[in-house]
Amino acid sequence: MPHPKLEFNRREVLLAGAGAALAGVLGLPPAAAAVSGRLTAKPGRVQLVGPSYPETEVWCYGGRVPGPELRVRQGGRLSVAFDNRLPQSSTVHWHGLRVPNAMDGVPELTQAPVAPGEVFAYEFDLPDAGTYWYHPHQGSVEQVGRGLYGPLIVEEPEPIRVDREVVWVLDDWRMTQEAAIVEDFDNFHDHTHSGRIGNTVTVNGAIPETFPVRAGERIRLRLINAANARFFALKFTGHAPRLIALDGQPCAPHELPGGRIVLGPAMRADLVLDLSGRPGERFAVVDDHYQRFAYRLLELAYEAGPPLRESPLDAPVALPANPLPAPELGTALRQRIVLGGGAMGGLASATFRGQTLGLREIAQEGKVWALNGIVADRIEMEPLVTLKRGRSAVIELVNETAFDHPMHLHGHSFRVLTRDGRPVPHGIWQDTVLVAPREKVEIAFVADNPGDWLFHCHILEHMAAGMMGVLRVG
């Protein structure tokens, strides 16, 4: 498994990148009731790995990676004119937001692709507070892999009391020694195995050595995993972060086992971090998801000055629930979706474009993954599940593959009920749920948002190679 041990001169890279990485997270302006503007996607050059190396050619929103942070108050309205100046068609998907179907940004399903030189107007209300993000859904493997994504924060009317709020957008990059992106986006091994894992990890588009903190302060840390395929398992050594929201949806605040949060691609988490160390101390934030290749992401570096306070802030951290309808489990429609295919997956045959084909024939089309034995192709997207509007649904996800899959449902959030028959504690709602190899996960939701909604693995290479389908709500 490739890992983010940089081949670059680490000290030069880190000293150059730390300031840029932290500049965008301090002094956040208050959220507006409505935000409107232009979001331009175009090629650009950014200093990802320090001044001793060339700038990296990327594709980006607003001339930077990540793209501009959009921050709106809950109940507000977002109006964005998407200006496509890329050399290929694109769209914008507002990940995790319960938007009208026509605003969901899925080409050929909810809208026509936005051609180079065209502008498309996205406009919708924001019913749910939380941590979200935006990215293209056209040519996602390449476009996200080149840097097209940005954070979208919907603030509660009365945010919890903290001393500072911080957004970390996590990503990894597959780069050459000259700091150029490796352009092997059609890599068949990536499509059949774990996806496009990079060799360079960034936080907010740079490689910070340290994150300055003050003893006694309380931070709300919003984490966003924008990587194509990398999982992050961040362990905050010496600290006990509390999880207060997952994928934007509040949960019962609770400490994380071992101080460790696991985020699959596209997942988000809101943590409350009480800085309990002493002035001058340092504590590593370690990513050990790939245990053979664990590495230090950065260090929490305590300032030398006196503590902000001698004991933790005495203020509640529970977030108010978003206005999600509760599913009626007793009368819910129950469906099963089986995840199949991939390397070591045993997929002998599947349906592709209405025909039953053998694995070799499917692979010749660049497809290797299936849902319920159907290999998806955007040309033909008959629904896997059809639900009457307002109906509750319980869906059992059965992973018959050798790989983890972060399964994402558009247009809805769902309650995670069970894993292998065991109830999931803390009232967890998500829009992207991890399903481990051979695991069964039950999710439930009310199908209250009409339209055809994409359901897919958010390892982007798996989606491109067939692991997607449609849930129809009518």
Would you write up a description of this structure?
The chain is mainly beta and 474 residues long. The chain folds into 3 domains: 10-155, Cupredoxins -  blue copper proteins (Immunoglobulin-like), CATH 2.60.40.420; 168-302, Immunoglobulin-like, CATH 2.60.40.420; 329-473, Immunoglobulin-like, CATH 2.60.40.420. It is built from 5 helices and 33 strands. The protein has helices at residues 10-23, 140-145, 188-192, 359-364, 460-464; strands at 32-46, 56-61, 70-84, 93-95, 119-125, 130-135, 150-155, 164-173, 200-203, 210-213, 218-225, 232-236, 242-246, 249-255, 260-263, 268-274, 282-287, 295-302, 333-341, 349-352, 355-358, 369-371, 374-375, 385-387, 391-399, 405-409, 414-419, 422-423, 429-430, 432-435, 440-447, 451-457, 468-473. The strands form 6 sheets. Strands 1, 2, 3, 4, 5, 6 and 7 form a 7-stranded mixed β-sheet that branches.
Descriptors:
single chain, 474 residues, mainly beta, Immunoglobulin-like, 3 domains, seven-stranded mixed sheet, 5 helices, globular, disordered N terminus
What's this model, at a glance?
The chain is mainly β and 474 residues long. Helices cover 8% and strands 42% of the residues.
Task: Record the SSE blueprint.
Layout (H helix, E strand, L loop, with lengths): L9 H14 L8 E15 L9 E6 L8 E15 L8 E3 L23 E7 L4 E6 L4 H6 L4 E6 L8 E10 L14 H5 L7 E4 L6 E4 L4 E8 L6 E5 L5 E5 L2 E7 L4 E4 L4 E7 L7 E6 L7 E8 L30 E9 L7 E4 L2 E4 H6 L4 E3 L2 E2 L9 E3 L3 E9 L5 E5 L4 E6 L2 E2 L5 E2 L1 E4 L4 E8 L3 E7 L2 H5 L3 E6 L1
Parallel strand pairs: 1-3, 3-7, 8-11, 10-18, 19-25, 20-23, 24-33
Antiparallel strand pairs: 1-2, 3-5, 4-6, 6-7, 8-9, 11-16, 12-15, 12-17, 13-14, 13-16, 17-18, 19-22, 20-21, 25-31, 26-30, 26-32, 27-28, 27-29, 27-31, 32-33
